[in-house]
Amino acid sequence: MAGILFIxxxxxxxxxxxxxxxxxxxxxxxxxxxxxxxxxxxxxxAHGREYNFATREQFERMIEAGVFLEYAQVFGSYYxxxxxxxxxxxxxxxxxLLDIDVQGAAQVRARMPEAVSIFVLxxxxxxLRTRLRxxxxxxxxxxxxxxxxxxxxxxxxxxxxxxxxxxxxxxxxDRAVAQLEAIVLAERFYRNxxxxxxxxxxxxxxxxxxxxxxxxxxxxxxxxxxGILGSSGQQQFNFxxxxxxxxxxxxxxxxxxx
Length: 258
What we know:
This protein has helices spanning about 15-25, 55-65, 85-90, 100-110, 125-140, 145-160, 175-190, 200-210, 215-225, 245-255; strands spanning about 5-10, 30, 35, 50-55, 70-75, 75-80, 95-100, 115-120, 165-170. By secondary structure, it is an alpha/beta fold. It has one domain: P-loop containing nucleotide triphosphate hydrolases (Rossmann fold, 3-Layer(aba) Sandwich). The strands form two sheets. Strands 2-7-1-8-9 form a five-stranded parallel sheet, with helices on both faces. α5 packs across α6 (about 145-160).
């Protein structure tokens, strides 16, 4: 049975890495491509687990050799997906999930328009700021300049949401995981005729509600919060002040990773 290629993108700090991890615990037959990068490992990250780490020179040699299905520079570092991951998934008859940025996603969609694309959004800038700061704390340092740079970049990335077939707002982790699982099962049902074992009608309804064409009402508050909707054309973030209560609430709303 042919595997399905899933693309998932999100601003840094939106929680997509945790969503992917939870999905793979609950749904079998989903391979995950570990991306290559030239950035330095963070905290407890290990080569071959979170990323495959390479020097800039090594990465550029891999580009010349045609190793990558897609690659891009993000925040000054290269990131890329090796073609081998797709070949291995296809050989095993598995789906493949790519966790890639909007630049890489555009490259993959151009080459493989049949890919299923999913965009994950944080509910608002304040929550995203908290997640980014919590991640920095976990790594042993809070770099405010880096946090605000990523917040600014997040608004630019979110403007690409129209290029994706499905939209998830990661405000409550369990709900977002259930929505991602429903998308995978629904696509398997429609494309491969794979049966859904439990509450199939409800699963298809949840997936359908996540289609971009059905998501505008849920999306509008997020887009407004990031300054994407409105006539001013200026980004006006409402960050508020940090508090222990805010950080505690955020642990129930989402995650603090990529």
